[in-house]
Predict the 3D structure of the following.
Amino acid sequence: MIKKINKNESRVRRHKRVRGKISGTAARPRLNVFRSANHMYAQLIDDDKGVTVCAASTAEKGFSDYGGNIDAAKKVGLAIAEKGKKIGVSEVVFDRSGYVYHGRVAALAEGAREGGLQF
């Protein structure tokens, strides 16, 4: 019998393994990325307090374009960088959540760097 590999289960396993090694602080929060078929989400998380400092996504009210492509991911990266700068965050720890650093995940990171976040 052929067993089909669950890709999301493998991704979650990779994410848990990486999360054992990285964490965000108040001075340098973790930039977490979640990618669904239709949207991109990004959060700045302070793991010491267990609090989401700010978030941006393509599912927000002001976002009108399709959210499942590279252009949308770059806009989310710029938006999270802008929100982070408003609260005084300039350095972050990038958490790709077990996704390959390619396509939409890389575009979001590039947009965050263009917006002024350092990682």
Summary: The longest helix spans residues 70-86. The radius of gyration is 14 Å.
